[in-house]
Amino acid sequence: MRFVQSLAVAIGVAVAAVASTASAQQTIVFGGSDAIGGTFDIQNKLFTKLVNERATGKLRVNFIAGEQLGPDMQVIEQMMQSSVQMYGDVLDWYANFNKDFAVFGWGFTFRDANHVQKFIDSQIYQEMAEQLRQKQGIRVLAASTTQPRVLFSRKPVQSLADLKDMKMRVPEIKTYLALWETLGTRPSRLAWAEVPLGLRTGVVEAAEGPISSAYAAKMHEAAKYVTRTDHILSTAHITINEKFFAALTPDLQKILTDAAKEAVLASREQASKEVDDIVEKMKKEGATVSAIDTKVINERARDAVAKMEAEGLWSTGLWQKIQAM
What we know:
Order of helices and strands: HEHEHEHHEEHEHEHHEEHHEHHH
Oligomer: single chain
């Protein structure tokens, strides 16, 4: 009898210990809206792995891949409301809250990946990120550049004239809409997951996106003409709800910050390496990949900068400051 009682007590203590450990462990819901296997999906999964390995028993990241939580803006809004704690994708989406982030989405603003990184490392960008933290409760843990965005279309695009009146899917970011209107297309809004079907059925005639993410979404199968416009150098980032972050212990804050930096840097390095490989895969799978003389398109975008600033898409003079870097 005593043995049975002792065993019961031991089991009770063990169960209590497990329950205590489980209750002590915090869970982070991490949302992403990239295609499975895309650049940001891989980045976010790496971040999840790093944190779960390093914060065992204290913190666990639950990454919800694809658009299970909704398209990007819905996930960001959920993060701001604390029902989702983290999000990882491109910085451009924050133009909906701080207009200066819109400059990331204006074509031909940056010369190359190093130019983008120089801006992200600048005081100007740091102040933008700080405003996002203070006013919207969104902390950027890490950010960098990844791949160029290219054009996918149902018919060949060899010049600016070929874009005229083309039904073009663009993200719900004002600068993207303005850019493609400036280039002569008729922008249309579709969730990222809906774009391949939209291209196949003719709801839209063209779309654009980072090479790896677009490949993962099989854009090249839905619209076999791939044009290396390289109009925007895409960014990558990981953000967190500021109140949630502030409530964590310093050691957990460091684990999250370090893992975010490592994951974003890995994303940049991998994205840079795989551009040529992805292009070759697209060709082998039936896509026609071509270069285009972007001089005329570039000039059209540059000529519209003054108009964009006059309309308040970003702060006056910001674009020129970036050019001077």
